Amino acid sequence: MTHDIFISYSSKDKIIADAVVSRMESGGIRCWYAPRDIVPGSDWAESITNAISASKILVLIFTQNSNLSIQVLREVAQAVEDGATVIPMRMEDIEPGDVMKGYLEGTHWLDAVDEKLESSVDDLYTLCAAVLETINAQSGEGSKRRFTVKKAIILAVLTAVLFFGGRFVLRMLRLSGAIRLRDYEPLGAASPIGELSPGYGTEPFFAEGTAPGNIRTGGYIAYSDGWYYFRSNDDEKLYKMREDGSEAKKLSDHSAKFIFVHDGWVYFEEEHGYVGIYRVTTEGENEQMIYGTDVPYMSLMGDRLYYFDYFDGLSFIDLTLDPDEIEFSGQSVCKDEDLCDSMFEMCFDGEYIYYTTTKVNGLYRLNIADGKSEKIVKDMVTGIVLYDRYIYFNDLTDGSIKAYDLSSGKMLTLVPYMMDYYQVRNDGIYGNSSNDGYLVKFDPSTGRTYQLSDKQVTYVCLADGRLFFWDFNRFYSTDLNGKSLIAL
Questions:
Q1: For residue 447, with 0-12 CB atoms within 10 Å meaning exposed, 13-18 middle and 19 or more buried, which class applies?
Q2: Nearest Cα residue to 116 out of 474, 473, 475
Q3: Given 119, 224, 400, 407, which is the most exposed site by the fewest CB atoms within 10 A?
Q4: Please, where are the H alpha helices in 140-233?
Q5: Within 13 Å and on the Cβ side, how many CA atoms surround 150?
Q6: Dihedral over alpha carbons 195, 196, 198, 201 (to 10 degrees)
Q7: CA torsion sign, 363 to 367 to 368 to 371?
């Protein structure tokens, strides 16, 4: 089927891509995006190349994730070389990398940083419709000619009334108390999480109340001794509250992610303003910066806080040090300049780093002791989560969640669709379905999916039996049955 627009995005931002495609196609503009439009059995890279060549517009969903993606950079580069019009939609207030900036020089950005997703995709639809109308009028249907987006904006203002059609409304309905059974065929296969894992609740798989998948999804909530520590709706600041949502208290004016609680301290990363790793007591006292650089990964194991950055590689801070000794006391574990430049996602068990890279497809395992890496999964993967002896991931080649058995090397297909953000427990996999963005639970023992919310959500985290998520407007918490909703 022919299309007009190619959607370039990071797989981590698939919910945004889904919203854009839904709005475009509800107004009659056909889009192409992976993995939906990859023909089963076809070559992934060749399919993308052909799709860009056939497009009149490339829409770039610009976030920190896409800014770091080599694949997205390649797609933008090809679109520019092919003469397609590139329309970047900026979702985060960050600057593009030097190479990306060169390709986008002179291009007008559609700024959606402070806008709601619904209104942003409506504006994008109006602009794309105007650009397509002009391209088709000037060049004839089926051919392409590079078009100035700034002119298209003027045209969009004059002709907006022609293109609004039926308004696209995301279904952000109130949370339902009932669990709804979804219509997926049972897999009928054995699952590595069908029974309680021997490693459940012990180091290093669960650390201080934080589920293993939280690290990958931002670590926005942790649990310790009857209290939840979380990122709030108050400008993303660090708060704590009791299990029933009472006694909420602000602990820090910094924004918080990668939240861990250990020995009376709350450790977290500030990702805005004065970036770095901070800690504050569980009573909100004696706040202290202990590392002064933005980190894409942080994990607590025993008395060590491990972190990764693109300067020092994987390092750790000894949390038993005195307060006046702990500042900037990181010790390098593994430093590899080439690896630091290309590592994209990772998880860590103290002996190995499991990671993906921006340079080539696959899942790799790095032995910390000797620094040697090996590829253990050849397919294009994302969303890696380590749990017991299994490593879970989204397989982009067939659109499923799989588990790789680290002890036997066997591969199991668990979920017949992908989840952008998910958590693994002994009783199931919780996350937001890539099909529609709703909060769901997949039960591997039956092969069934249960819908827990009528909200489209992202940033799904889990701690001590409660789910934490963002609905593109506010942060919420709910129990594992989709009930007892709390606004954070």
A1: middle
A2: 473
A3: 407
A4: 149-163, 214-217
A5: 4
A6: 160
A7: negative
Q: How far is Cα 311 from Cα 445, in angstroms, rounded to an integer?
A: 43
Whether pLDDT at 74 is above 60: yes
Q: Are 389 and 215 in contact (CB under 8 A)?
A: no
Give domain limits for the chain: 5-163, 201-335
Superfamily of domain 201-335: TolB, C-terminal domain (2.120.10.30)
To the question of domain 5-163 being in CATH 3.40.1010.20, the answer is no
Q: What gap in Å lies between CA 126 and CA 168, rounded to an integer?
A: 12
Tens of pLDDT, residue by residue over 353-393, are: 898 876 778 899 988 888 788 999 988 888 898 887 889 99
Mean pLDDT in the chain? 80
Instruction: Select the more confidently predicted residue: 251 or 190.
Output: 251
Give the C-alpha separation, 20 to 36, whole Å.
Answer: 14
Tokens of 227: 């209290």
105 HSE (CA, 13 A, CB side): 6
